[in-house]
Amino acid sequence: MIICICARVSDKTIERSARSGQSFDDLQFEHGVATQCGKCAGCARDIWDRCRSGGNTAHITSEAENSLA
Ligand code: FES
Fold first, then answer.
1. What domain range includes position 37?
2. One digit per residue, pLDDT tens: the chain, 69 residues?
3. 47 with 24: CB under 8 angstroms?
4. Residues with CB under 6 A from ligand 1
5. Number of separate domains in the chain
6. What is the CATH number of the domain that holds 46?
């Protein structure tokens, strides 16, 4: 699925980048994600964070954030 319409970057590209050890800045520099209108930034970061953390901790993180509120 295309996440960044402006740069035509898919979720698979973001996942590959995150799993290869690139930083989010590297992803932006190399593929142009979230560098134009910026509307994809939150979704792209969510995908990137989920892949960097192993994919199963997004729910745990969410609960931790809720307990702080
Ligand atoms: S949709 Fe990604 S910068 Fe516009």
1. 2-68
2. 999 999 999 999 999 999 999 999 999 999 999 999 999 999 999 999 999 887 544 444 444 444 554
3. no
4. 4-7, 34-40
5. 1
6. 1.10.10.1100
Q: What is the pTM of this model?
A: 0.76
The pLDDT of residue 53:
81
Distance 69 CA to ligand 1 centre (A): 30
CA 29 to centroid of ligand 1, rounded, Å: 13
2-6: long-range contacts at Cβ-Cβ below 8 A with a sequence spacing of 24 or more? 3/33, 3/40, 3/43, 3/44, 3/47, 4/31, 4/32, 4/33, 4/34, 4/40, 4/44, 5/39, 5/40, 6/32, 6/35, 6/36, 6/37, 6/40
> Could you tell me the distance, in angstroms and rounded to a whole number, from the CA of residue 65 to the centre of ligand 1?
27
